[in-house]
Automatic annotation (TrEMBL):
Keyword Glycoprotein carried by entry: no
Stretches assigned to the HTH CENPB-type domain: 29-103
Transmembrane listed as a keyword: no
Keywords: DNA-binding
Annotated PROSITE patterns: HTH_CENPB
GO MF annotation terms: DNA binding
Name by which UniProt lists this protein: HTH CENPB-type domain-containing protein
Domain of life: Eukaryota
Pfam families found in the cross-reference section: HTH_Tnp_Tc5
Amino acid sequence: MDRASQALARGVPPGVSKLYRGLADHSGQKAKDQQHLRDYEEKALLNFLLQLSDLGQPVQIKFIPNLAFCLARHRIESKRPSKPPSKNWSASFHKRYPEAEARRVQALDWNRHEKHIYPKVTH
């Protein structure tokens, strides 16, 4: 029996909404239809990210949702998502799999680079 079925079998504790949403929030489960990637697709994405990290090339966080969308587009046509994951999906993915290393990109300080292009841009 999967975790969602176990949560449904336990029942609703006092003070928790008796709707499926309240029970799902209480048990920490999300409906399978609402997840962007299937479990095996998440594992494949995790393995890919771990292999890149082992090579010393972690993926930028902003590209992880695009990778997830590419994975999901390989499903049969009736099960494909029509849009990419939400903007917070990569943060949730990182919470579920903290071993997946990703890096953030920061802007380069104008004064840090010797040959900055500020005068060329303003010209």
